[in-house]
């Protein structure tokens, strides 16, 4: 078993290329250990990852009897309430739940939101240094934009946003026992809060996706109360955390290389391709959720047994030279760009259009308002949170520059 890559080490988050290369040297699918999940196969090539994600009948989220893969027996029951959403379900439940919210995330609907997203980004960029000449770009900007957008989509009051920020911060370090206790207490508070919001929507109606879920609930049959909490929880988490790390990771790359930053700022029509490359290069989600192997299978020459578990290693797929030329290089004009940052198959990211637009708006608003923005510390002093599977910069101190 390949245990020589520590997926929670600073080195792996700072630059995953060496870790990916050493795993790939073992083979396209490698047996390893992953925090919380335990023993699991991970894919190291684009093809192997795509196959696991696309074949959703062979590689499922749940084992026989509906037990979720990767959720250990000691995980308290209430956490399972949060794992009752489309990303933890196989067909037909997956489609039953996804179809309720699909419409709100279609290209048309998301494009309609663009001017509004731009306005939020402009306001946040204006306020970046409101509290001092040095600011943490993660907390004051990268976190605020996706959170504002998803809260509005859901119909959650702006006054409640600090609660989500505290909650998001509480789940950042999942590798320690203390981190785990914080996670549990944050989730308990979150569950009480979401239950209360759903009750308000039942009694008073309102705008947004929560009101829509209540409408579907009233029609009967398509969603249970637990699934409603879990859906809102998924959208809040998936919709804000991941995009936060895309934005902070992209800004970090541009601040390390002002020539690149100026090249992009000279023509914002370049931002679409640039964000696609940041998605690939930053890989904010490094691994898919674990899948359960339904029957013995040969995966790219490696024999997996029924009952094994496997994760698609997205960051490795994104660095596979069979998929892209010189994948180790950041090329903001890369085209075509074959990456799996949003997954693929039936669980292909619901928010991919939204995340792309948020990424573009965030970079444009930031560097238009602060064209000489600079890192306040050396790049080597930037640290990553030790959250397995997610690549998140802990803090990105910046100054306005001249
Ligand atoms: C699924 C990545 C933004 C909502 C996924 C998956 C990935 C991913 C890799 C598939 C996981 C798997 O198959 O195991 C990302 C990244 C984002 C991002 C990198 C930002 C840069 C968003 C946003 C939203 C969102 C903005 C919603 C507002 C979802 C949902 C799913 C999902 C609901 C589950 C879809 C399903 O099971 O059918 N995302 N995501 N994501 N994402 Fe995203």
UniProtKB/TrEMBL annotation:
Keywords: Heme, Iron, Membrane, Metal-binding, Monooxygenase, Oxidoreductase, Transmembrane, Transmembrane helix. Pfam families: p450 (PF00067). InterPro entries: Cyt_P450 (IPR001128), Cyt_P450_B (IPR002397), Cyt_P450_CS (IPR017972), Cyt_P450_sf (IPR036396). The keyword Thylakoid does not apply. Gene3D superfamilies: Cytochrome P450. Signal peptide: none annotated. This is Cytochrome P450. Belongs to the cytochrome P450 family. The keyword Oxidoreductase applies. PANTHER family: CYTOCHROME P450 YJIB-RELATED (PTHR46696:SF1), P450, PUTATIVE (EUROFUNG)-RELATED (PTHR46696). It comes from Bradyrhizobium algeriense. The chain crosses the membrane at residues 164-184. Its cofactor is heme.
